[in-house]
Amino acid sequence: MSDNELGLFLRTRRETVTPSQVGLPTGPRRRTSGLRRAELATLAGVSVEYVTRLEQGRDRRPSPQVLSALANALRLSPAERVHLHRLSKSSDSGFSCLGGAQPQRHVRPSIRAILDRLEPAPAVVVNRLTEVLAHTDGYRRLMAPTGLFAGGDSPANLTRFVFTDAGIRALYPDWEHVADEMVAALKQGPFRADPHIAALADELTITAGPAFADRLDTVPSLAAATGITRLTHPEVGPLRLTYEVLDLSADDDQRLIVHLPADDATAVALDSLTGRRPGALRAVSS
Predict the structure, then answer these.
(1) Per residue in 186-198, pLDDT tens?
(2) Lowest CB count within 10 Å: 79, 138, 220, 267, which one?
(3) pTM (2 decimals)?
């Protein structure tokens, strides 16, 4: 596993920013669509050598002024800026916000009541291990035919499912992206400082091999909070689902993920899965 999450985050963001986005000319001889280190250094007002040290992990405690300059140069969103700040602080592993707490598997009654109100939308509560702790009936009707709950009484685990299920690539046409997002979610937070996440990562490194292990070194630890997932459902065929990830309180250490149909065809298909009247779930335009 890479232990240079700050450098990985800076490098991957640099590679996704195009020169035109920051007012630089795009020459015909560029080998990459992203920014060069020298260009980022110029925009941030630091030396190329310093950018190199940060990306390589040889300097892990940049000043707030440098962080702000890099965030401005990379056009980071507010969420990305918060994450960058957290990564710079987490380089000192002497403190953990979780204090060694066990993964939270108890879902408060008020959260379960919210799930009840979300019916028939597919919604699920997961903890930092991506264990499925509670869900709507709509979520079970959507995911049970895929094999997610085939493991028996133990909590289903979304990351384990995405990396080890035999038919997973047929289920997710955009499996590569889904796999990236799962690793990013697993890495967000204490990651290696959490023995429970470390144990899961060790397990998947063995059972899933390079498909998982390589992502630990290449996927930055900031999963998308919203997006669209394509699913080839075994019963109703192609689906396009808009999702929203809502973080619950720090004490809960859980996330609520809500799925809604992204088009009319998916809305009709979900209605048929849940046995609801047509129009129970309306498409959400992206």
Answers:
(1) 988 777 778 888 8
(2) 79
(3) 0.81
d(CA 42, CA 49): 11
Please, are residues 135 and 125 in contact by the beta-carbon 8 Å criterion? yes
Is the Cβ–Cβ distance between 236 and 268 less than 8 Å? no
How many C-beta neighbours within 10 Å does residue 178 have?
Answer: 20
Helix 64-73 with 78-90: angle, nearest 10 deg? 140
Strands 226-233 and 254-261: unpaired
Residue with tokens 């919604």: 123
What is the C-alpha to C-alpha distance for residues 11 and 31, in angstroms, rounded to an integer? 16
3-state SS assignment for residue 247: strand
Paired tokens of 280: 């129970």
The DSSP-derived string for 43-54 is HHTS-HHHHHHH
Per residue in 85-106, pLDDT (tens digit) is: 878 876 555 445 554 567 888 9
Q: What DSSP state is assigned to residue 7? A: H
Contacts (Cβ under 8 Å, ≥6 apart) of 33: 15, 18
Q: How far is CA 263 from CA 154, 171, 191, 244, in A?
A: 34, 18, 36, 16
Per-residue pLDDT tens digits for 63-88? 889 999 999 999 998 888 888 887 88
- Per the CB < 8 A criterion, the answer to whether 16 and 34 are in contact is yes
| Nearest Cα to Cα of residue 128 among 204, 194, 186 | 186
Residues in the chain: 286
Measured CA to CA, the distance from residue 6 to residue 272 in angstroms comes to 45
